[in-house]
Amino acid sequence: MSASALSPPEPATKGSTIREFLLWYDRRYGHAETARLADRLSPEAAVLVDPKQPALGILGASWYPTSVTHPMLTRVAERIGNEGRNFAIESCREVVPRMIGGVYRALFRSVTSPELYARHIGRLWRRLHTTGDRAMVIRAPGEALSVVESWPAHHPLSCWLAIYTMTNVFEAMGYQRWSVERLTCIGHGAARCETLLRYGT
Ligand SMILES: [Zn+2]
């Protein structure tokens, strides 16, 4: 039996979650800077991208392992600082409404209220990520606890991107006022990432 048959597959993320963010990065910082995101990839990971192409040639329908995504996320986080949180805030504000009206329209058609989001988010998450158990509990009117655990593909910046994707989905549902408080994070030694979302119209 080969070594690859013995080891579990590397966690992966659907290209559709990556592509629009890279196009946004391109518009914001220029293509040379986007191309630099591929600089630190291992030779095995580098064959999966093409720095000359828009969005590094990432295809929406393909899956990309953490050996591709993590070095890129780390580079963005180092460049922006603060785990890349401001990148997550700014990019999600523009990218998420476009995705839920476009490439994810079918996926999010059933998510029209916080209760339906809480019911479906675990299933939707697994359409886009091979690892991570995502759940939401509505604790009180206007207050939801979002949890991700069993997430070996966790990266501090992907954590913030998941959080601000969620807030923008809530905004699209009509909750223009929201705030988030990340209570715990795998990146800071916790067993799971917990975020408190408060929302109102
Ligand atoms: Zn986290």
What can you see in these coordinates?
The protein is α+β, with helices and mostly antiparallel strands and 201 residues long. The chain folds into two domains: 10-87, no CATH class; 111-200, H-NOX domain. 48% of the residues lie in helices and 19% in strands. The protein is built from nine helices and six strands; from the N terminus they run αβαααβααααββαββ. The chain has helices spanning 3-6, 15-29, 31-36, 43-46, 66-80, 85-101, 105-108, 114-128, 156-172; strands spanning 12-14, 63-65, 133-140, 143-149, 177-184, 192-200. Strands 3-4-6-5 form a four-stranded antiparallel sheet, covered by helices on one side. Helix 2 (15-29) packs across helix 6 (85-101) and helix 6 (85-101) crosses helix 9 (156-172).
Physical arrangement of strands within the biggest beta sheet: 3-4-6-5
- Estimate the strand proportion: 15-25%
Cα Rg: 17 Å
The CATH superfamily of the largest domain is identified as: H-NOX domain
Q: In angstroms, what separates the terminal alpha carbons? A: 57 Å
CATH class of the largest domain: Alpha Beta
Order of helices and strands: HEHHHEHHHHEEHEE
CATH architecture of the largest domain: Alpha-Beta Complex
Instruction: Write down how many β-strands occur, each being a DSSP E stretch of 2 or more residues.
Output: 6
Q: Looking at the structure, what is the overall shape?
A: globular
Broad structural category? alpha+beta
Low-confidence stretches: none
Task: Give the number of helices.
Answer: 9
What is the name of the CATH topology of the largest domain?
H-NOX domain
Largest sheet, in brief, is: 4 strands, antiparallel
Ligands in the model, by name, code or SMILES, are: zinc ion
Let me know the average pLDDT.
95
Count of the domains:
2
